[in-house]
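Quick one: structure tokens for this chain, please?
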Amino acid sequence: MERDQLAQLLDTSGYASSACRHALLQGADFILWEGSVPASRMVPAYERRESHTVAEGIPTLGFADAVASLRGVGTEHVQLGQVTVTNPPYLFMLFLAADASTVVACLGVDQRPHADRMVG
């Protein structure tokens, strides 16, 4: 999938999707992995990751909404993608429909070290 195609799929009202789209259009690195898995298999891992970010005070975008969306599609297959922003360092995880026609969920996680987040 080309950058512009992925950016167009992210043209939604969600803040995480909007931030991810902007990052893509600004040249952020991205990857879409081959294959797909049932969304229900991703939910426990991302519930744990969400709990970890909350416990550690790590800023996120759209995490709770993304987990809820994954729960909502149940056993439907999703394809994973990632958009990596270097400045400021942020990582977006994308969950696309198995046919890559729509974005099921998008979340972002601040990648700055804890001390750097405390300063600004």
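The chain has a mean pLDDT of 93.
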